[in-house]
Every structure is written in C-alpha cells, then in structure tokens.
Amino acid sequence: MILLELEDRQWIFLATVVFAATTGLATYAALKLRRKSSRAYTLALVSFGWILQTIGLYGRGLQYGGCPLSNRFELVQFMVWSAIALYIFVGPAFRVSLLGMFTSAFATIFSILSLSFDSWDTTAGAPLFGDSPWIETHAALALFSYGTFGILALTSGMYLLQSRSLKQKKMGGFFPFLPSLFDLTSINLRLLLIGYLILSISLAIGGVYWTRETVSVDVPKLSATIAVWLAYGVLLLLRFRHFISYKQFSWACIGVFAAALLSLGPVDNSTNEEASLNQYITLSARR
Amino acid sequence: MSFHHGELLLITVNHETVSMEDRERYSLDERQIQSLYQRLHQSPDIEESLILNTCNRFELYTKTSDPRNGISIVYQALHDFYKIDTEEIEAHASTRYGPAAIKHLIEVSAGLRSQITGEAEIFGQVKEAYALCQNLGYSGKLINRMVQKGFQAVKLIRNSTPIGEGQINISNVAVDLSMKIFGALHNTSVLIIGTGEIGEKTAKALRSRGATDFGIASHSTERAEIATHKWGGSPRNLEDILSYLNEYDIVISSTDTDRPILDAQNLSETVGVRKNRALFLIDLGMPRNFDPSCEEMEDVYLYNLDDLAEIAETNLKERKAAIKRSEEIADQKSISIWEMLENRGLVNFQ
Questions:
Q1: Do residue B182 and residue A181 have CB atoms under 8 angstroms apart?
Q2: CA A82 – CA A149 distance, rounded (Å)
Q3: In chain B, positions 149-168, which contact chain A (CB-CB < 8 Å)?
Q4: E strand or H helix at B49
Q5: DSSP letters spanning B238-302
C-alpha cells in the first residue's frame, strides 16, 4: 500500500533508521561523552520513529481491512510497535535513564531482522480474521503482551548489567546511567504483572473463540501459547514467593522471552492456515 | 600596569595564593560585608560591586568609572576597612581585568578553582553573594549581565563535562554505591559496627541522603550506647550480630577484630530470612572485618577501604581531566560576555 508516495515497507525502513540513529546517539553520549542523553530528547526521537512505523503498519492494515498480522514480518513489527508504544506512554513513569536507548536498540535489531528476510513478508491478501473482531483483538493483545515482555527482557538485562558492575566493582560503561537494583526489580515486577494480565485477557478472548471453533486453532499454536502463558505465570509465582533470586529471575525473563519469540513460528504457521481457511470461507460465502 | 579593560576589575585573596592565616584576616560576616559595600560606594568612582566571601576566598568585583585609578581606589577602600597596609593587601591579592575577571568568576562558580575540584557548594555560595548584592542595591547593569551570563556558562560546564561527576571522598562513594543498590535511602536500615571516625562520617553522609534507621554495634554495649546518644539510633551488641543482621540493608564496619566478623558461612544462615534482599557490606576496618568470601553470596555486595579509595581516585582523575575542557569553555564564554557588554555600551567607555 502506498501512503504519501512511499510503500508501507519504506515507512517501516525509515522508522528503523530513526531507531538505529537514536540508539547510536544515546550510546555515543553515554560511553564516549560520559553524558546522560536527555530523556525528553530520546523520547522525542523514539516517538518520531514510532509515528513512521505506525504509518507503515496503517498502510498494511488498510490493505487487509484489519490489524496487519498476516505473516512473520508483521507479527514482529507489531510486537516492536507495542514495545515502543509501552515505552512512550508508560515508560516515562518508570523514570529510567537509558530505557529509551535500550528500547530503540531492541526495535532496531528486530526491525532489521524482519526486513532482512523477504520470506517473512508473504502477504495473505485476504482478511485474516474473517468477521470476528474478537479474535483480532485476541491477536493484537497477545502481541502487545509480547511487546511488554520485550521491555521486561530489556530491564532484566539492565539489572544483570548493573548487578555485575557492582559485584565486579567496575564503575565504567553504562553503570553511572543505570537505575538502582531496587528500582529495576520493582519495575520488572510491574512489567511482568502488566504483560501477564494482557496475555491472560488475550487468551481468555481466544479461548472463547476456540471453544466455538475447535478446528480453527491447531495444536502447535495452542501448545506454544499456553506454554508461554504458563511460563510467565510460574515466573510470577516464583517471584512473589521469593523462591528465586533477582538475578535468576532476570535471566528467566530473558530466557522466557526468547522462547516466546520462537513460539511466534507456530503462531505464524497457524495464522497462515487460518488465513487460507478464512479466504476459503469468504469465497464459499460469495458463491 | 595595564589599564586595558580596567573598568571591570577583580581583586581576589584565595587558597591558591595565600595561607589560611592570611585568608582569615579578610574573612567577613554578613554585617561586615554590608559595611564594606558602604565603604566602597562612598567613592564616586565605584559604580557597582560584588563581594564573594567564603572560607577559601575573598573576592571583590567592581565596576569603576575611572579605569586608570580604579585599582588604587579599591585598595584604599580595603585599607580603610581592614586596617591592613595597602602594600600588604597588594601582596596577598591577585588582580584580573575585563574578560579575565569574568573568566575567573565562571571558573570559581563551576568549582574549577575549589580545593575539591568540581564541588558544587561554591555555586550556591556565589548565588547567595549575588542575591545579597542585588538586595543591597550594589549591582547594576554590568554586574547583573556578567553574573547572569556567567551562571549560564557555569551550567554549560557542569552539564557538558564530568567536572562535578562521581564522588571523591570515601564516605560519599559509599553513599553513592548504596543508592545504586537501594535507590532512595529513606527505607534502608544501616548498621554501624565500631565507633570510629570514618564510620561516623559515612553514617552522617548516609543520613544526609535520607537514611533514618540506624543501629550501632560494638564489642562493648556501653560504648554502643554512648555512640547512639551522640549519633542517634539503637545500640547493639556485636556478639549477637547474626541474630539481628537480617534487619539491616547496609553494614558499615570499622572495628578492631582478630578474625572476620562475617564470612560466607555465617552469612548463609541469614539468606533464607532475607528473601533475596540485597546486603551492602562496607568494610572500613584494618585488618579487614569481613571475609572476602562474603562476596560469593549472590545478593551481597562487599566493598573494602581499597575498593572505595580506588573509585574515589578514578573519579578525581576524571574530574581533573575535565578541567582543561572546562577552562576552554570559560575562556570562550568570558570573551563572548565581554563582547556583549561592549556592544551594550557597558564597558570600554573611556
């Protein structure tokens, strides 16, 4: 879809360039100039990139008449979009220096990855969710929760970095600009709660759909989704009961997020099958 | 003597050039500062003035309508006020004119000329001196412009160089590390082992940054009680440390001991009770009070005297490295401020 004379992928490419530039500038300021880049400045740059990305995804959405979630490229882009949205709208409340830099780095890496593989971006060419806005909400919420877990993985990484610096007494690098361990553990818990709540709502909506159309969801997608939900649930329980240390918790948040990303594979395959099924249903209805 | 730029002159008696005994002779309280202002402005040739008086420096910035004789007029006023011979004052004082005086003001306010390089307290003192001068009505267009533009330059220096970053004394380094672990300190509990001076200083530094809950442990309960009367907090008997250790987040130790008070083995007994809460051990004792094995515990952060001194030393090196860049900024800004004053017709009017 062409918007303002640019293809949707070109808008997303431009957004990626802005995210990369933000990461580069903030890293240079911290490591070379030994200065904390202003939160407002980083937020403005990331927001600009996010607006460009939104235009690109909006173009895709117009093509389908719904959320652009038809292939792996769009799933990754939507997850990145959600993570950035969370940073822009909720992030300032955390008052974490360098969160903007880490988030833009996250966006850059995943955006470059999704733009690099043409095979990830094969368009379905038909409405993905038939007539059901609920299942579209389910998918969008699930990916939004993945975005939240992405930010959680970042703040967990910050915790590990800060803890390592304090243990090894290395006060250089990002150390002066990272928040305290206590603040990071509290932010991590809040992010896990938010992400888990959103994922649970998403699964509850999906569950209602699934009980009506049991054949429409394949086993790998169902298993992967439940496994991710269970993993974060167990993590939340372990954290609340103090059964694991903050360091183990942080590693687990990164590990589970990596596994959750891998679970997008089965979800993507299933989405393609659903798209074919919906296309078939639409065509049958027309006949 | 050159009278170029003589309409703005600075006389400074400071720690860089004069001993403490001599500096004491120029020290003033607020009432005396007012009297000196009055004496200076009895002369019709002194149009504006600003006095900065701290424990390390006496400085006088004046705008004079007689650049050629301005310095003599000021020395005479100082002689009348302090009852010190003019020759002696001249020997103690350094003088600067025009942009060099502005540069000096910027450098002093930014902490470049302080005994502790980069300290921020001086900026507050300069602000207070300027506020008093304004309230008394001795500042005018030139001093107001110079100070306000100078303050902008100071902010630029402090924001764009590491001149004021990182703590450079051991107590403050310990406090900064505490804040990197626990964030705000108002919810942290601090146990001080031993009643030595360095422990007391660190406790004071922690208290100044928000810590309120203190315990003081000593081999002698009596000594602990005396210390708590002096510093505040509750007395503890050192022999029972393992029974109350889990109540504390930060432990500062500087006591004489034959064997380590804490090691990985006895610390592990408290781990279950702490529920993963971090423990910051600050070992200021010699021989060391905490066994290095404590560091092996996951949520335990152990720093000894050498570690803290090394961090302070690194920070000081970084500050010193920033002096050159800061001086360059001060130089550029003082020239541009002087040009601005010239363009406004506030200087070079002879």
A1: yes
A2: 10
A3: 159-160, 162, 165-166
A4: strand B46-53
A5: GGGHHHHGGG-SEEEE----SS-SB-HHHHHHHHHHHTT--EEEEE--SS-SB-GGGGGSTTEEE
pTM score, whole prediction: 0.76
B160's tokens: 């764009």
- Paired tokens of B222: 């009596």
Question: Per residue in A65-86, pLDDT tens?
Answer: 777 777 888 888 988 998 899 8
Strand order in the sheet with B57-64: B46-53, B57-64, B8-14, B94-97
Tokens representing B345 are 């017709």
Q: Give how far A25 is from chain B: nearest CA, Å.
A: 15
Contact at CB, A162 and B180, closer than 8 angstroms? yes
**Nearest by Cα to A161 from A251, A84, A80:** A251
Task: Check B55, B273, B309, B321 and give the catalytic one.
Answer: B55
* ipTM over cut 0.85: no
Q: Which is it for strands B94-97 and B8-14: parallel, antiparallel or unpaired?
A: antiparallel
Chain A closest CA to B264's CA: distance in Å?
A: 15
Q: Is the peptide bond before B287 cis (omega within 30 degrees of 0)?
A: yes
Are A128 and A74 in contact by the 8 Å Cβ rule? The answer is: no
**Alpha-carbon gap, residue A71 to A271, rounded angstroms:** 7
